[in-house]
Specification:
Elements: E1 5-10, E2 15-18, E3 23-27, E4 31-37, E5 47-53, E6 58-64, E7 70-83, E8 88-100, E9 106-109, H1 114-119, H2 125-143, H3 147-158
């Protein structure tokens, strides 16, 4: 299949990177599932899988250590834009993130970055509103015990 190019755009720091080494496992109008190695390997983070929920506005990733043990789930709040002329999808990280540790502890991070980004014009009011609504929707799913509904798309490929 001729998948579009996938880009990750960040607001802080401002950058747009082609995810050239990510392996796209599945792509449709609602979801994208990828397998990847860390762009900038860290002490613990080595590789993982991601499922982009395009309509819902978030990406759920499963982060692994080099020994294949689960580090945690990392959820980015996102927006995306398909660029037909370049046959590419630019996924913008809207700053707010949710981390779910293996013991079930949930941590929301980087909300504090949204205010300076808004003040500097790096994020629009519409994207800020969208981010807050998507974050709320994601947290509601997690708190209602529906994380498995979000990770099942990843787990289909982990087993194959």
């Amino acid at each position: 299949m001729n998948y579009p190019l996938l880009y990750r755009k960040r607001i802080i720091p401002e950058e747009c990177i082609l995810l050239k080494d990510d392996i796209i496992l599945s792509w449709d109008s609602e979801r994208i599932v990828t397998k990847w190695h860390a762009l900038k390997p860290k002490k613990d983070l080595h590789h993982g899988y991601s499922c982009y929920f395009l309509k819902e506005g978030y990406k759920v990733s499963k982060f692994y250590r080099a020994d294949d043990s689960l580090l945690y789930y990392y959820c980015d709040i996102i927006t995306s834009e398909y660029q037909r002329d370049r046959h590419s999808l630019v996924v913008t990280d809207l700053l707010a993130d949710v981390i779910i540790y293996p013991d079930g502890f949930v941590k929301v991070v980087d909300l504090d970055e949204m205010v300076p980004a808004l003040d500097q014009g790096s994020i629009s009011v519409e994207h800020l509103k969208s981010a807050l609504l998507s974050c709320n929707s994601l947290l509601t799913s997690i708190y209602e015990g529906r994380l498995h509904e979000l990770t099942k798309y990843i787990e289909l490929f982990e087993q194959s």
